[in-house]
Specification:
Bound molecules: pseudouridine-5'-monophosphate, manganese (II) ion
Oligomer: single chain
Number of strands: 13
Number of helices: 13
CATH topology: Indigoidine synthase fold
Strand content: 15-25%
CATH superfamily: Indigoidine synthase domain
Shape: globular
CATH architecture: 3-Layer(aba) Sandwich
Distance between the termini: 32 Å
Radius of gyration: 18 Å
Helix content: 40-55%
Length: about 300
């Protein structure tokens, strides 16, 4: 499985210039068309404006790509039948020549293999509600427990069981810090209602933690930088609670399971909040991408 690293990304890595990995599942399966392609291009532009190089990651015709050109981004956004690939799916996709968008777990693995240390996404996967029945816990968590990468996110998706996910992050030994907050963010909401133990206030402080991870040389686990959506851009918490309850019912009634659960719930929220959840989602992702670029710059300057 030969990694295809774009020339621009390869040059930036070699010259130790800042690079930010971006995931593609949010593009292919997390956002409605045609908005998804605009967002993919916009996020890359946000990275560039901060002086860093974007490396969007996906698998095309069995080949994992780190850094996509416009045509390749278009395929991820618009191709029918593009799969959703977690890290366990990578060898299967590679051997069969399949194309797919990469989740946090697959993106983090490919980014780390390419030597990219900073990664931005929307919300991590985690422990689903009803876990005791379904055992549905995103593979994102297990992979981040064994991958040395810094992930900037707006917490975990609020469709999940947030306290159970926080507990699993602790058990798995994954470092978590709030960015300029002592509250764990709630993806569409600035505050999930749960605290975090650590707060970091600048990209330089985040880079210091990354250096400390390396010098301690403990298990190769991730650092999660939980960056809240600004309160004025969050989804109305009351609307969020109401529509989410309906969405969970619809998911169960529809018999939706496995990989389809997350896209189903995200789509339900967009349709039943008149797009307000999409606006909050995009505000969160944009903020994460900007912060990741600044962290990558602080890391590269070290
Ligand atoms: N956050 C979003 N939209 C998404 C996802 C996260 O705002 O589409 C994706 C990420 O790729 C994450 C995946 O890794 O959902 C988790 O899916 P699952 O619960 O099936 O592991
Ligand atoms: Mn799942």
């Amino acid at each position: 499985m030969v990694l295809r690293v774009s020339e621009e990304v390869r040059e930036a890595i070699d010259a130790r210039r800042p690079v930010v990995a971006l995931e593609s599942t949010i593009i292919a399966h997390g956002l409605p068309r045609p908005r998804n392609l605009q967002v993919a291009l916009e996020l890359e532009e946000v990275v560039r404006r901060e002086g860093a190089v974007p490396a969007t990651i996906a698998v095309l015709d069995g080949r994992p790509h780190v850094g996509l050109d416009k045509e390749q981004l278009e395929r991820v956004a618009n191709e029918d039948g593009i799969r959703k690939l977690g890290h366990r799916d990578l060898p299967l996709a590679a051997a069969s020549g399949a194309s797919g968008a990469t989740t946090v777990s697959a993106t983090a693995l490919l980014a780390a293999l390419a030597g990219v240390r900073v990664f931005a996404t929307g919300g991590l996967g985690g422990v689903h509600r009803e876990w005791t029945v379904t055992q549905d816990e995103s593979a994102d968590l297990g992979l981040l427990a064994r991958t040395r990468i810094t992930v900037v996110c707006a917490g975990v998706k609020s469709i999940l069981d947030v306290p159970a996910t926080l507990q699993r992050l602790e058990t798995l030994g994954i470092a978590v810090a709030g960015y300029s907050t002592d509250r764990f963010p709630g993806f569409y909401l600035s505050d999930s209602g749960h605290p975090v133990d650590w707060t970091l206030d600048s990209p330089a402080q985040v880079a210091d933690v990354m250096r400390a991870q390396d010098s301690l040389d403990g298990p190769g686990s991730a650092l999660i930088v939980a960056n809240p959506v600004p309160p004025e851009e969050q989804l109305d918490p009351e609307l969020h609670a109401r529509v989410l309850a309906d969405a969970l019912h619809a998911c169960e009634a529809g018999g939706v399971t496995g990989q389809a659960v997350t896209p189903f719930l995200l789509d339900y929220l967009v349709r039943h909040t008149d797009g307000a959840s999409l606006t909050a989602n995009l505000a969160a992702v944009r903020g994460n991408v900007r912060l990741a670029a600044r962290i990558a710059a602080a890391w590269a300057a070290a």
